[in-house]
Design goal:
Elements (H helix, E strand, L loop, with lengths): L1 E5 L2 E5 L13 H10 L7 H17 L5 H7 L4 H7 L4 H9 L9
Antiparallel strand pairs: 1-2
Helix pairs in contact: 1-5, 2-5
């Protein structure tokens, strides 16, 4: 684990850069993580997916796959890839402050 300074304060990340404690998440933190991964601004559509990721994680204990995101978040898979390039489930999970979904490389 690594502790890093990301707004609004220090957070612990695992070896792959995911939050260790999802309760440390804030929208301000999400915006900073998104910027660090090439997304200059989180739109309402980004936040719709991020909030869905968090709700699903806290309800089930697991982060949803890209397939579940495309079927259940209200954002089609094609748009997910536009919003979160290079692996929407993994990047959305990182921004949402939840663990990497199973099956993501």
């Amino acid at each position: 684990m690594t502790t890093v300074e990301i707004a609004p304060g220090p957070v612990e990340l695992d070896a792959e850069g995911f939050l260790v404690d999802p309760t440390q998440w804030t929208e301000e933190l999400a915006r900073e993580i998104a910027r660090e991964h090439g997304i200059p601004e989180l739109t309402d559509r980004h936040l719709q997916v991020v909030r869905f990721m968090r709700e699903r994680f806290f309800a089930s204990g697991a982060s949803p796959s890209v397939r579940a995101l495309g079927k259940e978040s209200g954002v089609p898979i094609k748009e997910l890839y536009e919003l979160f390039p290079k692996g929407p489930a993994k990047l959305a999970a990182r921004i949402a402050g939840v663990p990497k979904p199973r099956g993501c490389i």
